[in-house]
Write a structure and sequence with these properties.
heterodimer; A: Rossmann fold; Helicase, Ruva Protein, domain 3; 5-stranded parallel β-sheet; 16 strands; elongated; B: 191 residues
Chain lengths: 447, 191
């Protein structure tokens, strides 16, 4: 049995609608009918029909207008035009506008059957292509790191270059910016890609446990060490070790890490036999490590070891142009996962998403889309579906330094003025040239 | 075991060779192991004739059958030698109420040459039996099948019909058997 299609019949004649409904019941298809173009659009808004049979001549919105609207709003829907003799020219026009086929009323029984067969094949091919694209996305190395904005393009350019070397990399960015994804992409592009990638969040593990996790231990090394255990430095063996939130590790652990990086040897807890280790280190932090060094919270020698190469991942509020792309990506992801058939975000909702500051960055955006998809009763996400964002801490930007505060404010004004420097400088009450210098100093460029 | 039987009626509407309802009844009996009654023929209701299309409206004929009292039959197949239509199609050779009680079989387009020679009659009988078993499948809520050799496969014309076997595919056979058993398990409304 083939996969059943969902069909919407749009015809102002009740007898024709009923005849279609009766016929498609024999195929076990989910079939609904609409008496007008407007009713059809309402039904499409609620349910993603695979196939539409649309009569050309209808009062009010005619079949061609409906076809145009459907192709604009639901391009994946397959439309078959139904027409009477004498309107072949219109049928041809409909085909040019994106209709997949047309049927002349009344049609031979096998004509409808052939159209259904053709559409089923088309749908199967589309599903296969979508599946393959999904698979490709899964195995593509830059999967989930999405962005066309200039700051992200710079990150993308750096990844393959950095991957070629074996130097330690420090990823700097706020929580939720996708540091681990960048780390994975570097690993995937490196010569170590066939070997393990192990990620550990240093900030989430108590110091004693982190030591045992990284170095391993001998049996009886401490209370509860009933069995010997290999540490991640050994398990990763030739691969990449990703230490997230490296700025959170204790001073003692900093010493241990430094020794490993210098000597490329470790000793298990409770053991005196050195074991040679080979791994590539990628660290990440949301802190300003340089500042941490200057205030004595992070060892300078370790800092120089881990930040041979630094990649800064911009917060989402500094690359708002990527929001539509990311939102669409997460929408597809959660529509698939939840089988909710939510597949569009209207322009007002997109404006809401773009105007929000996203203190939790891409992760917060992903969570917001997931929540909206789960709670949505329509296949279209509208601004009210994101009302929880406006209720939330929009202004919770929490810049940690004067420079950050300055940068955030200048960026906001520039965005409000659509990057018109003259206008922005008037709002900021500074000279145009000063603003230019400020933008250069703060690394602000029109996206 | 005195399990109640599925009782199917076959009735001719208008002029139909006697052999055809009998042949259809025999095929149903053999295939479904149901009790089949060949009911006394009735005239074709003139009200179901569409003057514009010069064909009989399948939906009006089915409505007409609903008004008749046709014994204890749980399903009724009416056979007629007239051209049938439904609004969206130029013609149909059979029509059934999906999951309902009444169905139609038209012989009009099952004839190849329109000659009533013995071989032609035999061919028409075979095709009519196939259409009848297909429509009966719909009465038992079976859907169109993708297996081109199955009786429940949609046949657009006699060429397609001749390609199907006089049998249901394994899946449709199981679905039909389940439906027949469900019907037998239902209390008899007439008792």
């Amino acid at each position: 049995m083939t996969e059943k299609m969902s069909i919407l019949v749009v015809d102002d004649e009740r007898i024709v609608r009923e005849s279609f409904l009766h016929w498609f019941r024999k195929y076990g298809c989910k079939t609904e009918a609409a008496a007008s173009g407007l009713e059809a659009l309402e039904k499409l808004d609620r349910y993603p029909f695979d196939l539409l049979f649309v009569d050309i001549k209808m009062p009010g919105m005619d079949g061609l207008e409906l076809l145009e609207r459907v192709k604009q709003q639901y391009p994946e829907a397959i439309v078959i035009i139904i027409t009477a003799y004498g309107s072949i020219d219109t049928a041809v026009k409909a085909m040019k506008m994106g209709a997949s086929d047309y049927l002349l009323k009344p049609f031979q029984p096998d004509q409808l059957s052939l159209v259904l067969e053709k559409v089923a094949n088309q749908k199967r091919l589309v599903s296969e292509v979508q599946y393959m694209k999904g698979r490709l996305e899964e195995i593509t190395r830059f999967d989930n790191i999405i962005g066309q904005s200039r700051p992200m393009q710079e990150v993308f350019d750096l990844i393959p270059q950095v991957a070629q070397s074996d130097a330690s990399v420090l990823l700097v960015g706020e929580t939720g910016t996708g540091k681990e994804l960048v780390a994975k992409a570097i690993h995937a592009k490196s010569k170590r890609s066939a070997l393990p990638f192990i990620a550990i969040n240093c900030g989430a593990i108590p110091d004693s446990l982190l030591e045992s996790e990284l170095f391993g231990h001998q049996k009886g090394a401490f209370t509860g060490a009933d069995h010997p255990r290999k540490g991640l430095f050994v398990v990763v063996s030739g691969g990449t070790l990703f230490l997230d939130e490296i700025g959170e590790v204790s001073p003692k652990m900093q010493v241990d890490l430094l020794r490993v990086l210098e000597e490329k040897k470790i000793m298990k807890i409770g053991d005196r036999v050195p074991i040679a280790v080979d791994f590539r280190l990628i660290s990440a932090t949301r802190r300003d490590l340089e500042q941490e060094v200057s205030r004595g919270a992070f060892r300078e020698d370790l800092f120089y070891r881990v930040h041979v190469i630094t990649i800064t991942i911009p917060p989402l509020r500094e690359r708002k142009d990527d929001i539509p792309l990311l939102a669409e990506h997460f929408l597809r992801k959660y529509s698939r996962q939840t089988a909710k058939q939510v597949d569009r975000i209207d322009s007002e909702a997109m404006r809401t998403l773009k105007s929000y500051d996203w203190p939790g960055n891409v992760r917060e955006l992903e969570n917001a889309i997931e929540r909206a998809v789960v709670l949505s009763k329509s296949r279209l996400l509208r601004a009210p579906d994101f009302s929880f964002l406006s209720a939330g801490p929009v202004a919770e930007l929490k810049p940690r330094s004067l420079r950050e505060l300055e940068k955030a404010h200048v960026l906001r004004i520039l965005e409000e003025c659509d990057w018109n420097v003259t206008q922005a400088s008037k709002t900021l009450d500074i000279h145009r040239a000063t603003l230019h210098k400020m933008m250069k100093r703060l690394g602000l460029r029109k996206p | 075991m005195n399990a109640p039987m599925n009782r199917i009626g076959v009735i001719a509407l208008g002029e139909v060779p006697d052999l055809i309802p009998q042949s259809i009844a025999a095929h149903i009996q053999g295939m479904l192991h149901a009790e089949v009654d060949v009911l006394p023929p009735l005239a074709l209701p003139s009200g179901a004739f569409d003057q514009g299309r010069l064909q009989y409206s399948a939906s009006l004929l089915l409505q007409h059958l609903e008004t008749l009292s046709l014994g204890l039959c749980t399903k009724v197949l009416a056979v007629l030698d007239a051209d049938l239509f439904v609004p969206i199609f130029s013609h149909v050779v059979g029509e059934a109420q999906q999951g309902g009680k009444h169905a139609l079989v038209s012989l009009y387009r099952l004839k190849t040459h329109g000659v009533e020679s013995p071989s032609e009659l035999s061919l028409v009988m075979e095709r009519a039996a196939k259409v009848a078993l297909h429509e009966l499948g719909h009465l038992y809520d079976l859907h169109h099948c993708t297996d081109p050799s199955c009786l429940m496969h949609f046949a657009g014309g006699v060429e397609d019909l001749d390609k199907t076997f006089m049998d249901y595919c394994n899946y449709c056979r199981v679905f039909l058997r389940d439906a027949l058993l469900r019907e037998r398990a239902q209390p008899d409304e007439d008792e």
